[in-house]
Amino acid sequence: MKLQHNTILITGGTSGFGYEFASRLLALGNTVIITGRNQDRLDEVRVKLPGIHTFQSDVSDSEQITLLFKQVITQFPGLNMLINNAGEMRMISFHDTSIDLHNITREVEINLMGPIRMVQQFLPHLKKQKNAAILNVTSGIALMPFPLSPIYGATKSGLRSYTKSLRVQLKSTGVKVFELIAPGSTTPLNDKFAGIDGFDDKMLMAPAKLIDAAIKGLMKDQLEIYPGLAGVMRVMSRVAPAFLLSQTSKVGAQWIASKN
Ligand SMILES: NC(=O)c1ccc[n+]([C@@H]2O[C@H](COP(=O)([O-])OP(=O)(O)OC[C@H]3O[C@@H](n4cnc5c(N)ncnc54)[C@H](OP(=O)(O)O)[C@@H]3O)[C@@H](O)[C@H]2O)c1
């Protein structure tokens, strides 16, 4: 797709991939709107990226999504692209009985219900636009379980399945549906894994390089974009899924057991 003169809404634009996307897409000559929960962080981005537009909004809250839609469409009726990027990844040991029934599904509400509700809310508008697109950010962990972050893995596999179905259903419309299958990257999301047994931060890709690959993929209309190691994970998940699981099971095995 053409990546100039679009009006693009990115959920979770204050750090990591969302920030990189915002910075690159602004520089390419697009109108860029970002969201996040923390107003101070949104204000910091406004200083760092002059021209950016920000809205405080929590993607796990359906009422906030409805309000966001009204505000964004009033100010930016030309909105033609949605990037569902906001996400959270936690380490969870099922042996930890202190996690209550509300807390255990937090990533489902942000990473899976968030994008599903955003699409439901914005799709009728996007269908009326020229050069419209939705990009859902999934993960290499959508292709295989990652036992240290079991709920996160479930959300990303779910989002991948949803994205494929969405693409089929929107085939006859002008809305392109992209998926960024992102490999591990040096963003704040991964800070919590420092020092965890079996976690190797040398495998992580720089976010700027990863988003560069994502932008190139979008420009070439690659509906599924696999930067860096995600391409290897794609092949391995098909030819050697049991081996992949045995490898990912080693990450944080001691940490998980320590909660027993
Ligand atoms: N980093 C990786 O290794 C990696 C790999 C594969 C896929 N991904 C995916 O890439 C996406 C971006 O991750 P990242 O690594 O860039 O993470 P990050 O640096 O932690 O950034 C997450 C962004 O999402 C926002 N956010 C979190 N929860 C939100 C909510 N409920 N509503 C609105 N905004 C929310 C955060 O701002 P506030 O906290 O202020 O709300 C922040 O702007 C996520 O979907 C993640 O699962 C990451």
Question: Keywords for this structure?
Answer:
Rossmann fold, alpha/beta, single chain, 260 residues, 7-stranded parallel β-sheet, globular, 44% helix
What does the model show?
It is a single chain. The protein is built from 9 helices and 7 strands. With 260 residues, the protein is of the alpha/beta class. The protein has a single domain, classed as Rossmann fold. A 7-stranded parallel β-sheet has the order 3-2-1-4-5-6-7, with helices on both faces. Helix 7 packs across helix 8 (241-248). The chain is globular and about 50 Å long. It starts with 6 loop residues before the first strand and ends with a helix. NADP nicotinamide-adenine-dinucleotide phosphate is lined by residues 11-18, 35-38, 41, 58-60, 85-89, 110-111, 137, 139, 182, 184-185, 187-190.
